[in-house]
Amino acid sequence: MLKVKNLHASVGDKEILKGLDIEVKAGEIHAVMGPNGSGKSTLSAVLAGRDEYEVTAGEVDYLGKELLELNPEERSWEGIFLAFQYPVEIPGVSNINFLKTAINERRKYFEQEPIAAKDFLKMVKEKSTLVELSDKLKNRSVNVGFSGGEKKRNEIFQMAMLEPKLSILDETDSGLDIDALRIVAHGVNTLKSKDNATIVITHYQRLLDYIIPDFVHVLYDGRIIKTGGKELALELEEKGYDWLTKAKA
Amino acid sequence: MAYSEDDLKQDLVDQEYEFGFTTDVDSEKIPKGLTEETVRIISSKKEEPEWLLDYRLKAFRVFQGMTEPDWAHVTYEKPSLQDIVFYSAPKPKKELASLDEVDPEILKTMERLGISLEEQKKLTGVAVDFVMDSVSVATSFKEKLGELGIIFCSFSEAVKDHPELVKKYLGTVVPSSDNYYAALNSAVFSDGSFCYIPKGTKCPMELSTYFRINESGTGQFERTLLIADKGSYVSYLEGCTAPQRDENQLHAAVVELIALDEAEIKYSTVQNWYPGDKDGVGGVFNFVTKRGVCQQNAKISWTQVETGSAITWKYPSCILKGDNSVGEFYSVAVTNNHQMADTGTKMLHIGKNTKSTIISKGISAGNSHNSYRGLVRIGKGADNSRNFSQCDSLLMTDTCGAHTYPYIECENSTAQLEHEATTSKIGEDQKFYCLQRGIGEEKAISLIVNGYAKEVLNKLPMEFAVEAQKLLEISLEGSVG
């Protein structure tokens, strides 16, 4: 599904990704772990197409397309979803209106009619149950006045509504209490299928107790320095990153 | 390539008003310039009674002793009054045989605003087929209003048919000595609207100047007088979301609202006059004095969406004279290119337990300047009065300006005043969030801006709100290519 080869990216004149490789197949869950400043959030931003990041070298193949050639919105329409580490507030725009606009914009891209109100509401009802999002939050302005946990649940709700092929969860566990963590993880696990894939970017092993990854990658200084199975996460939890980074240094 | 802030900036500069000046007004004119004789001619042409001529002359004398104010945050070349023709009786515009003769651009805009075919014809001056009902609809509206004793007519008609009401209330809220432009208007006003709602009557429909559009073209110096008698209610709509073309550069209107005990007036405006071209050439100067007075338990609510005019100078205000009266001001002002707007409100609390709310949302783009100027004054006797003010500014470019001048004068220690203000730039984060969810740049900006202005748009009557929202969208749509 996704093949990243020798990816280099910078912000301003600072190079952050320095030759990153990763391959994700349909049906898989990948965890990307690493210490602060290793480039985790840059990876998600580059994949989603954020302007401030300049890709200086490398290739990204996504379902046979040159991902880096696509606009952020085209990437979204083609099935890439980024759950933000810091979900953004949009005052005066209801969650529901926001999602309906998003869904219809994508339908327009695929030359489909706008979604029928009935179908949309049915979908909202079904998907919001998944992350236990209350009606009140659905109708409130996007993320305005949401608690940290509610924001993250709202991200997963949006993910469920948009039915992406490749989801990237950027530090979705940060700031979550254990209950919220469980709800978020339940959402992600329920949405998992043989046709979609997920990249979970996280600091801590904790989330991986709930979302079981097929692969764990360690990102350090802009490169993947080690890849393993889920047991690698446990090892990291126990030993920290030092034993890997020191070996590298 | 992704659409950048720079592209947006460029597009904002490139955006041009699609409508231009093309109206051929066929009219009966008097010589240019302003003298006492001009005032007399206007009054006699309009066959006005003696008392009204006196009113005009008095105003003219006051006006002569005044100078044009320059405290507003706007710069412009002062219009020379000696070059203005102060009276031109509007003759019916040339009727067009069909919509085919109307500029297709205008029709396109109207269609997108959701204006019906019938309304489009009316607004563009196309003869309305007698089997169609817009004329009869307007007539039946009038009949219905008449049954309830509601008077809704042009100002000139009111002078002829209801002189006692006009005489009693004219100039009681905005005295002719109030300010330079109010004095000018009082001396030379051309025509306008008059409305009276009898005691205890709830006006069953939104009153709109729009219904009278063929009967009396909008004048350059418009005068509106609206009286809501005790316990009555009226919602009044002024202006139109459709592009307004006008050859007059200077507009100095006066609007007076009188809400007697327990009465409620909701006054909504959408202003879309020609703003000038992208270099700031041309455009309408809109210097308006709007004020209402509330008696006991009365309420006046002003809502405005201002997108047009080169210069706007406008402060719809409330005098909260009666105890427990309520004043509200909700405003969205959009400026682009070289437009300048200095707008806000005055809430003058005189009675006890009076309450006022001010919500002002400025949106600046291009090289424009958008200022909020407001005064909240709590008088000595205004025990337990409350005011809440919120002034937000949204900046679309690095070259525009947003300014806030809130004045508070409080002479009563039992009053409660709250003021909140924010200034934000349309956020890269917000935009990227929308893009990531598959909402393209243009749609994203319109979504964010409409969300920003929602509190105010919600105050507009339903059908108006939808049009106003589309109007914002259209003006911003051009701005992002």
Description:
With 249 residues, chain A is of the alpha/beta class. Chain A has a single domain (2-248), classed as 3-Layer(aba) Sandwich (Rossmann fold). Chain A is built from 9 helices and 12 strands. Chain A has helices at residues 40-48, 72-77, 95-109, 117-130, 135-139, 148-162, 178-191, 230-239, 242-248, and strands at 2-11, 14-24, 29-33, 53-62, 65-66, 80-83, 90-94, 141-142, 166-170, 197-202, 215-220, 223-228. In chain A, the strands form 3 sheets. A 6-stranded mixed β-sheet of chain A has the order 6-9-10-3-11-12, with helices on both faces. In chain A, a hairpin with a 2-residue loop joins strand 11 and strand 12. In chain A, helix 6 (148-162) runs parallel beside helix 7 (178-191). The model of chain A has no long low-confidence stretch (mean pLDDT 91). The model of chain B is unreliable at 1-5, 7-27, 125-137 and 211-219 (pLDDT under 50). The longest helix of chain B has 18 residues, at 462-479. Chain B has 12 helices and 21 strands. Chain B is globular. In chain B, helix 2 (36-45) packs antiparallel against helix 3 and helix 3 (50-64) packs antiparallel against helix 9 (180-188). By secondary structure, chain B is of the alpha/beta class. Chain B has one domain. In chain B, the strands form 3 sheets. In chain B, strands 3, 4, 6, 8, 9, 11, 13, 14, 16, 18 and 20 form an 11-stranded mixed β-sheet that branches. An 8-stranded parallel β-sheet of chain B has the order 5-7-10-12-15-17-19-21, covered by helices on one side. Chain B has a two-stranded antiparallel ribbon with strand order 1-2. The A-B interface holds A 48-52, 71-73, 75-77, 81-82, 84, 87-93, 97-99, 101-103, 105-106, 109, 141, 158, 162 and B 2, 4, 427-430, 432-441, 443, 447-448, 450-455.
Work out the largest interface and the residue count of each chain. A-B, 33 and 25 residues
Radius of gyration of chain A: 18 Å
The total of helices of chain B stands at 12
The gross shape of chain A turns out to be: globular
Tally of contiguous helical segments of chain A:
9
How can the largest sheet of chain B be summarized? 11 strands, mixed
Taking the sheet with the most strands of chain A, its summary is: 6 strands, mixed
Low-confidence segments of chain B: 1-5, 7-27, 125-137, 211-219
